[in-house]
Amino acid sequence: MIRRMGCMPKIVDHDARRLELVEVTWKVIARRGFDGVTLRDIAAEAGFANGALKPYFPTRASLIRATFSHVFGRTNSRIATSTQGLAGLSALRAFAAEVLPLDADRLDEARVVIPFWQVAIHEPEFAALNDEAMLQWRNWIRGWIAQAGDEGSLRGNVDPMVAAESFLTFLLGSQIAAVLDAGFNDPSQLRAQLEQHLGLLRTG
Question: Residues 150-170: pLDDT tens digits?
Answer without folding.
Answer: 999 999 999 999 999 999 999
